[in-house]
Design a protein that fits this description.
GO cellular component, one term: outer membrane
Low-confidence stretches: none
Number of helices: 10
Order of helices and strands: HHEHEEHEHEHHEEHHH
Structural class: alpha/beta
Domain N-acetylmuramoyl-L-alanine amidase: 64-195
Number of strands: 7
Helix content: 25-40%
Catalytic activity: Hydrolyzes the link between N-acetylmuramoyl residues and L-amino acid residues in certain cell-wall glycopeptides
Signal peptide: 1-27
Largest sheet: 5 strands, mixed
CATH topology of the largest domain: Lysozyme-like
Keywords: Cell wall biogenesis/degradation, Hydrolase, Signal
Radius of gyration: 26 Å
Number of domains: 2
Distance between the termini: 42 Å
Mean pLDDT: 91
């Protein structure tokens, strides 16, 4: 039992030791980080106190700590862009208590990765959000911020590092492919990040997030029999026609599909916009076209 608590203490203490503070400009805030980690470790090591006041109840004769437990593990990864102009600006923002915002990782344009919090700790990156029935994404996710102002492409070194980080997280925590999503996905009425310039398909090709099948919008040629000639003297004729390879079911409801995928559809326009930011990546403020509905239907089937 002592060994288990020691491991928990070591993990929390290690949150403050992710990087050396010897020549670190953030030595002061790292010290504060370490102090908070120690406080959490102390709380975990303490025997739970008996309740007082109106919510008291009979206590057992002694405290019995189970040997069957572990740390909570993340089940989602939420990708953001910083909407700031430098990695340094973001690091400073995330080390100011007054901002009340943070993430587990920050990745610079040059591909350098700053891990600011242990994966098992709760960062403040999702805000008021929802995905499916999950309304507290901060408690079940890892947040990754990309140094990007929201109107620029995402450089190759950054994406290469992101894919490496995602690979590590997927392997270590067993995060399902479909649970790699964006901030706009979980907060469609508030957020638009990462922007439509983000290469979601590249991530999906590497196993992080889902993407629609490439042939979903393809056309195919079919032979149809048509009647030619006047009334009473018609002759059947085979005509080669080009038609969509796939069609929508008559009862297809886009809002139901978005909801089943995970989107919060209480604001339908916002849900459609978030979907288009992620999967269409142009004309994001317009209603769904018929082709876009086909893409949505194709993706919806992957979530059933």
């Amino acid at each position: 039992m002592k060994r288990i608590f020691t491991q928990a203490f070591t993990l929390l203490l290690g949150c403050g030791l992710l990087a050396s503070c010897a020549t670190n400009p953030y030595a002061a805030t790292n010290k504060s980080h370490k102090k908070q980690a120690k406080a959490y470790a102390k709380s975990l090591l303490a025997i739970p106190a008996a309740p007082t006041g109106e919510h008291t109840y009979p206590q057992g004769d002694y405290w019995v700590g189970t040997t069957n437990f572990n740390l909570r593990k993340p089940n989602f990864v939420i990708i953001h862009h910083t909407a700031q102009n430098s990695t340094e600006h973001t690091l400073k923002t995330f080390t100011m208590p007054s901002t009340k915002v943070s993430s587990h990782y920050v990745i610079g344009r040059d591909g350098k990765v700053y891990q600011m919090l242990h994966d098992h700790m709760r960062a403040w990156h999702g805000g008021n959000s929802r995905w499916g029935s999950n309304t507290d994404l901060n408690s079940s996710s890892i947040g990754i911020e990309l140094d990007n102002n929201g109107s620029e492409p995402f450089p190759e070194p950054m994406i290469n590092s992101l894919i490496a980080v995602l690979g590590k997280l997927k392997k270590e925590h067993g995060i399902p492919a479909e649970n790699f999503i964006g901030h706009a996905d979980i907060a469609p009425a508030r957020k638009v990040d990462p922007s439509p310039l983000f290469p979601w398909k590249t991530l999906a090709d590497n196993g992080f997030g889902l993407w629609y099948d490439e042939d979903v919008l393809e056309k195919e040629q079919v032979l149809r029999e048509v009647a030619v000639g006047g009334e009473g003297d018609q002759t059947p004729l085979l005509v080669l026609e080009t038609v969509p390879k796939y069609t929508l079911p008559e009862n297809f409801n886009p809002m139901d599909a978005l909801r089943i995928i995970g989107y919060d559809v209480r604001n339908p326009e916002a849900a459609v916009r978030a979907f288009k930011i992620h999967f269409i990546q142009n004309d994001i403020n317009s209603p769904l076209t018929e082709d876009e509905k086909l893409i949505l239907y194709n993706l919806y089937q992957k979530y059933l």
